[in-house]
Specification:
single chain, 241 residues, alpha/beta, Rossmann fold, seven-stranded mixed β-sheet, 7 strands, globular, binds S-adenosylmethionine, tRNA processing, tRNA (guanine-N(7)-)-methyltransferase, methyltransferase
Length: 241
């Protein structure tokens, strides 16, 4: 759900001015067809495992009923298969998945219900705003961003999620020693991400440049699509100083 205050002209303001101040988003909301199972999961799973967007900081310990576990945020989980798989393999770690695409949210909720994953919650909203307003500073042990939209065309590069300002926001939310893991199948975006993360003084690369794939990351849907197209895959893992 988008914040209408960001999108709509007010009575006193012409539409073109409202458009000018409209924030640049890293996604386009697609009308995806919902399967019946996804629709059902949205109805039953959202009250149990969903978190409504509200510009109020979350109490992460209270949310998961435990304070001592690591807290990881995944941005743009797509259909959520990899997210559910990681959460199932790491029951001692708590995960918050953020995604705007409704069929994807339904798909992940369905998997949470089927697998009974008590360590995974879902927020359907722009991750930039969730980070800004809901995630407390220095509260995260890790951030996963797997196969973010590469926005290939130069005139669309401003829509790329990985930008200096956003990375600085992520650093504010990561604990000292926490990690940021980005994976992409688009070489030019991999080079862009490497440059942006390397330029952030609060981050240190864990590798000389690209990292070996951490074993917790399973193959994702978009990764498989990229591999089928003959793309390579680049993982980048940085630590918060
Ligand atoms: C290319 S897909 C990759 C999905 C998944 N991680 C995978 O590897 O299969 C990128 C996803 O990020 C989501 N996304 C992009 N910008 C986002 C944002 N600002 N907040 C939440 N989700 C976002 C899109 O809706 C899309 O589903």
């Amino acid at each position: 759900m988008q914040d209408p205050a960001n999108e709509l002209p007010t009575q006193a303001e012409p539409a073109e001015d409202a458009l000018k101040r409209r924030p640049i988003r890293s996604y386009v909301l697609r009308q995806g067809r919902l399967t019946e199972a996804q629709q059902r999961a949205l109805e039953t799973g959202m009250p149990a495992y969903g978190i409504e967007y509200a510009p109020v900081p979350l109490d992460l310990a209270q949310l998961f009923g435990r304070a001592d576990s690591s807290k990881i945020v995944e941005i743009g989980f797509g259909m959520g298969d990899a997210t559910a798989q990681i959460a199932a393999h790491l029951p001692d770690v708590d995960f918050i998945g953020i995604e705007v695409h409704t069929p994807g949210v339904g798909s992940l909720l369905k998997q949470i219900e089927q697998r009974g994953l008590g360590n995974l919650r879902v927020i359907q909203h722009d991750a930039v705003e969730v980070l800004q307003h809901m995630v407390p500073d220095a509260s995260l042990d890790g951030v996963h961003i797997f196969f973010p939209d590469p926005w290939h065309k130069k005139r669309h590069h401003k829509r790329r999620l990985i930008q200096a300002g956003f990375v600085s926001l992520l650093c504010q939310k990561l604990k000292v020693g926490a990690y940021l893991h980005v994976a992409t199948d688009w070489q030019e975006y991999a080079e862009w991400v490497l440059e942006v993360l390397t330029a952030e003084p609060l981050l240190q690369n864990t590798a000389a440049d690209y990292a070996p794939k951490p074993e917790y990351r399973p193959l994702t849907k978009f990764e498989q699509r990229g591999i089928n197209l003959g793309h390579g895959v680049w993982d980048l893992v940085f630590r918060r100083l």
